[in-house]
């Protein structure tokens, strides 16, 4: 009965992008990713929130009040090691994240593109 409970958050399966649950747990055990999923808190309607994804800057405006983001974050050590390893563009992952965010946000990129136009 979904009438009495809030809708569960939409999630992206990291296993589809070569990061299995076991790998995620290993990165946590090694102290490279923080152990808990983080929550952004309620994202305000104005001003738009900056969001960077694979070197593309987006501005996110929630389509509804009370929107939140849940995410994993590198530890300070993980962040430093990620800089040494370098960046790898993953177009399928980028597209999937944008599609997921577009369900709840109006998104504008730093190159002037609009990902969705629900407003």
Short description:
The protein is of the alpha+beta class. The protein is 26% helix and 18% strand. The chain has 3 helices and 5 strands; from the N terminus they run αββββααβ.
Low-confidence blocks of residues: none
Strand order of the largest sheet: 2-3-5
Mean pLDDT: 84
The helix/strand series, from N terminus to C terminus, equals HEEEEHHE
Q: Helix tally?
A: 3
Q: What is the strand tally?
A: 5
- Helical content class: 25-40%
Distance between the termini: 30 Å
Instruction: Name the beta content range.
Output: 15-25%
- If you compute it from the alpha carbons, what radius of gyration comes out, rounded to the nearest whole angstrom? 16 Å
Structural class: alpha+beta
Shape field: globular
Largest sheet: 3 strands, antiparallel
Layout of strands and helices, then pairs:
Elements: H1 21-29, E1 38-39, E2 49-53, E3 56-62, E4 70-71, H2 76-85, H3 91-102, E5 105-109
Antiparallel strand pairs: 1-4, 2-3, 3-5
């Amino acid at each position: 009965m979904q009438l009495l409970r809030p809708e569960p958050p939409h999630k992206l399966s990291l296993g589809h992008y070569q990061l299995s649950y076991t790998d995620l747990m290993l990165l946590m055990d090694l102290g490279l990713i923080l152990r808990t999923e983080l929550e952004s808190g309620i994202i305000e309607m104005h001003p738009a929130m900056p969001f960077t994804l694979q070197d593309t800057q987006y501005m996110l405006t929630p389509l509804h009040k009370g929107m939140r983001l849940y995410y994993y974050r590198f530890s300070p050590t993980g962040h430093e090691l990620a800089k040494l390893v370098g960046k790898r563009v993953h177009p399928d992952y980028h597209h999937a994240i944008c599609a997921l965010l577009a369900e709840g946000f109006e998104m504008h990129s730093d190159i002037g593109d609009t990902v969705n136009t629900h407003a």
